[in-house]
Amino acid sequence: MMTGAFIAGAGLFFTPMTVLMTALGCLLGIVIGVLPGLGPLMGIILLTPLAFHLPPVEAMGLLIAVYVGGSCGGAISAILVRIPGTPLAAATLLDGHPMHLKGKSREAVGLAISASAMGGLIGGLFLVFLAPLLAAVALRFGPPEYFALTLLGLISIAVVSGEETTKGLMAGLMGLLVATVGADPFSSTYRFTFGYNPLLGGFNIVAIVVGLFALSEMFIQITSGHLTEKPQVPWVKTSFDSIGAALSRWVNLLRSSLIGTFFGILPGAGGVISAFTSYAVARANSKHPELFGTGVEDGVIASEAANNACCGGAMIPTLALAIPGDASTAVLMGALILLGFFPGPDLFSKHADVVGGIFLAYIAANVFLLVLGILLTPFFVSVIKIRKSYLIPIVLLLSCIGTYAIQGSAFDLWVMLGFGVVGYILRRFDYPLAPIVIGAVLGPICESSLRRSLILSGNNVDIFFNRPISAAILIIDIALILWIALPRGLKSTIRGRAIGLMKLAPEKGGPD
Amino acid sequence: MLRGFSKIVAASALALGGAGLLAGPAIAQSSFPTRRIEVIYPWTPGTPTYAVSQIIANAMGNNLGVNMPVVAKTGASGVNAFDQALAQPADGYSVIDGYVAPLVISPLFKKANWNCGDFVPLYSATSNAFAVVSRADEKRWTDFPSFIKYLKAHPGKTRYTASAQLSLPHMVMAKVLKTVGAVARNVPYNDLADGTKDLRSGLLDWMVVNPGIYRANKKEFRVLAVLSGLKEVSKIYDGAKRAQDYGVDIGLHSLAPMGWDWWLVKKGTPAPVVAKLRAAMGKALAEPAVHNKILQIGFVPTSYKPDQYSKVCTSVRQQLQAAMGAITWETNELKKYH
Amino acid sequence: MARLRERRLIGELVVSAGFLALSLLVFEQIVVVFAPEGAASGGALQNAALYPGLLAGALAALTLVQIGKTLTARRAPKIEPDQDNGRVAPEDAEWIRAFICTAAFVCYLIALPPIGYQLATPVLMFILYRSLGETSLFKVAFFAIATSLAASFVFERLLDVILPVGRFGIGY
Q1: Residue A192 pLDDT > 50
Q2: Chain-chain contact of C170 with B67 (C-beta, under 8 angstroms)
Q3: Residue B249 within a domain
Q4: Is the Cα torsion angle C31, C35, C37, C41 positive or negative in sign?
Q5: What is the CATH number for B89?
Q6: B210 & B238 share domain
Q7: Which residue of A437, B128, B204, C87 could cross-link B199, Cys pair, CB 3.0 to 4.6 Å?
Q8: Could you give the C-alpha distances from B217 to A107, A165, A179, A322, in angstroms and in order?
């Protein structure tokens, strides 16, 4: 069936205009991702009116490429200026920026792009060959399973917090609490709005991320001096060796892509969580977990491969079930409807050519991401040659417009400023900021899954343990919590013994 | 220091002058519209209703000669969008995609303090009727009467979703359940697509859908009844019967049991501006291409004229006020079975 | 150095107090706002307070642990030099500069809705470029206008974002 769709789709996709639109979309996506505030979601929303006037596969090629490019672009600003261009890149910052500080800017950016593109392609393989099958798996995940999974995501807070576990958990709880502001979707109570109506919709996640990371970084840069010195950054050459670097860490690349695809398939889970989870797993599986956070390649690969593989994954329920995998694919689905096609099983049987064209566009977008991204790396790296006295105001302006563009709300700019102040204070006292993002993203899913499960079961907590998948994930959650709570000495003893056992039975031990 | 300050002032003036010069022609033109018009949309982007709003805004913008970007301002069942729209000046540059939930239902539940009279109508845009569906392979019932019979025999046992708590579909469904005297457990979902997933996997027993969800999952659903009195609405659900065809009067008439939106501007908008916007919207809705595109998505263009707004709005408000009691009834009934 | 450490210790406690205040605020709201609405009890559908209450409880407990850790630490927290310039704290002039920039940004946010993007932004950019150390008045004024116009072109013309137009309705 898939081969037929491909052949039918090839006729639609391989026209000069469609290929051009896909390349253009990818380029626009990367730039939109780099800009703080704007991400793949806003990119797709802003370009949908343009797509309106194009034939279906051309239009979808453009928008899907924006999705793919935008999901990677944020890593570039995270690495080079410690400002995640999108929330997706908040985990990439953890090792990407230290790599830049070590003088490995080009390597870090190249690695992020290569890992993204390859992760995206691996996600694409699942999309093309297993979409209907995996969509059926997604159906098995109801509210209890989602709740168990959000706990898994929250546990990754302990991992990304490094040595400051207590502070990390405090920051994570703060993120979860921040997400409760606004109208409660269940009881319609207005929570923590203090009678102030702009708070009804809650805090926008983009305003939170831009404030926490971008504004706090600007404060720190302004107070560290050397603002008018011209940074001595040598011109870097284009080099495709980062593809090899990413491929040489193929176990991590593959594992992270699988994690990303999995979270993508589950509607609502999304790229941010896949990136953090994959980062946590990569660290846990590393021979040198203590080096994570100091600029290791595996950290960048883990988060970037996962968040782009998530794109391919998220398109699976969107196309096969008409249930969007995340906010961006929801808008992609809206665009498809606007173009006259309803996603769902019917699309696969009635319009196999359009489905094939969309698959090809997705794959091509990842190839373009790899080529264009690496070709443009020297250009992006050259941005940090701008004197800080000019760079900081420009970044501030772009952050403002990017945040404002989301919903045309001046209030969001105040939110951004507020979180900038909070972020600065927390950073000065060694509180990690990533947990706030994890909390704010997972919060709504965590609460609604918990409460919906309880409503479904008539307020009976058994529902979490009666269902096999939910029970299994909860057992993993508990095991992980116990493992984290173990004293460090005991952990290294257990790890040492485990490695000893693996050496005794080498056929069972995998690489990495 | 003082010199430095005066330099700053001088340069600021220069900057202001520069910007002013560029913007000069914009101020000089008095004919509306001189710049783009924002369409304030109250739900998350990406849903079929968003696509419909974009289709209308695009055609309307073509008629006016300016772009009309549709900006989604989500939160609090549309109250957030209305709030932001009302904070804008009444100059016609902010058009509100006025859905029934924030316009009528939120004020009914005292979640907002405006009423229909605070807005000036352009045209009514579309309506979408709801339908009760179950899985296509459902064995416990075959049609609406056997479904009601099952619900009555198993009060409080089946689980359904009708979108968010206190949403219009929930109010309508509670009214139906109260009318026939059946009790089921409502599970709120902000996003009906998520509810569809849980219906298909068996966590929910039945649900209330809109045309968009129906179109995307046709083969998975069996339509039990369409919740509207209007005959033409059956077509959207491929000829499924209405509740009244089974002798069940849901007690809500004309637009009251349906989702609808009326494009509005703030009260106080100058009459010539309103007239221009109306003309552009009227023309857009009359274009066959626009009409067909909307129908294709599963929505019915309603084409009520501006002078009918007040009557429609008041009538719907009165009917829904009466239906509010059904939700309280449902909550109290459910307590008996737990 | 000893004074810096003392200040750091006090700072740590102030931040902890902030977290504690946050959790107390949640409980205050539950009692004062949620409870009268009937949203602080009942099943999962009605009880809007259960989940934030659990979070606030956990946050308060963790904050107390953190305060305990801070107070019982055998050594005062170590002060690490900044990774960029090797200093432990900014100089006074830099604090002033940061303050001016922040104040300018706050004024910008206040001015943006009434006077609009096109008028407010060049002024903000001018003040920021100047206070971050650029001296050439003409160059700074030129860049201030150029960056605002370039950003407006990209976002308004190309991406169709509507930026604040202000009372004068200046915008594309």
Answers
A1: yes
A2: no
A3: yes
A4: positive
A5: 3.40.190.150
A6: yes
A7: B204
A8: 46, 45, 32, 7
Check if the beta carbon of residue A215 is closer than 8 Å to that of residue C101.
Answer: no
What's chain C's Rg over C-alpha atoms? 24
Structural domain boundaries in chain C = 2-72, 92-158
Interval B116-144 mean pLDDT:
91
Gap between the Cα atoms of A246 and A238, Å rounded: 16
**pLDDT, position C85:** 53
Is 70 exceeded by the pLDDT of residue C74?
no
Q: Measured between alpha carbons, how far is A69 from A113 in angstroms, rounded to an integer?
A: 9
Contact between A332 and B165 using a beta-carbon 8 Å cutoff: no
Identify all chain B residues contacting A409, using CB atoms and an 8 Å cutoff: 73, 84
- Distance (Å, whole) CA A11 – CA A315: 22
Residues B264 and B117 occupy one common structural domain: yes
Residue whose structure tokens are 């969007």? A324
Tens of pLDDT, residues C24-44? 999 999 999 999 988 888 888
Last residue of a domain, one of B255, B284, B313: B255
Mean local confidence (pLDDT), A388-392:
89
Residue of C141, C165, C167 lying closest to B11 (CB–CB): C141
Q: Is the pLDDT of residue C88 over 70?
A: no
User: Is B29 inside any structural domain?
Assistant: no
Section A20-36 average pLDDT: 92
Residue A360 corresponds to which tokens in the numbers above?
């090809």
Question: Chains with ≥3 Cβ pairs under 8 A against A?
Answer: B, C
Residue C172: predicted pLDDT = 76
B54: nearest CA in chain A?
Answer: A49
Q: Is B8 inside any structural domain?
A: no
Which of B19, B23, B93 comes nearest C145 by C-beta? B19
Q: How far apart are CA A285 and CA A296, in angstroms?
A: 14
* pLDDT of A475: 93
Return phi, psi of residue B206, to 5°: -160, 170
Average pLDDT over residues B204-211: 93
Question: Is the CB of residue A362 less than 8 Å from the CB of residue A312?
Answer: yes
Say yes or no: B290 and B276 in one domain.
Answer: yes
Give C93's contacts (C-beta < 8 A, 6+ positions apart): none
> Does residue C132 sit at the B interface (CB-CB below 8 Å)?
no
User: Residue B165 is part of a domain; what is its CATH number?
Assistant: 3.40.190.10
pLDDT tens for A193-237 read 998 888 988 998 889 989 999 899 899 889 887 787 877 766 777
CB A299 within 8 A of CB A279: yes
When scoring B39, B158, B194, B296 by the number of chain A Cβ atoms within 10 A, the one with the most, hence best to mutate, is B194
The number of domains in chain B is 2
> A484 or B24: whose pLDDT is higher?
A484
The side-by-side arrangement of strands in the sheet containing B206-209 is B185-186, B159-161, B206-209, B131-135, B221-226
Query: Taking CB atoms and an 8 Å cutoff, what residues of chain C touch B188?
Result: 45
Say yes or no: B188 contacts chain C, CB-CB below 8 A: yes
Residues B136 and B122 in one domain: no
Is residue B140 domain-shared with residue B249, that is, in the same domain?
yes
pTM of the model: 0.88
Q: pLDDT for A119-176, tens place per residue?
A: 999 999 999 888 888 888 888 889 999 999 888 888 888 777 777 888 999 999 999 9
**Structural domain boundaries enclosing B92:** 38-127+259-304
Residue B98 bridge partners (DSSP): B262
Residue B31 lies inside a defined structural domain of this protein: no
Query: Could you tell me the end-to-end alpha-carbon distance of chain A, in angstroms, rounded to an integer?
Result: 37
For residue C98, pLDDT over 80 is answered with yes
Q: Can you say how many angstroms the Cα of residue C124 is from the centroid of all Cα atoms in its chain?
A: 18
Statement to judge: residues B122 and B70 lie in one domain: yes
Per-residue pLDDT at C143: 94
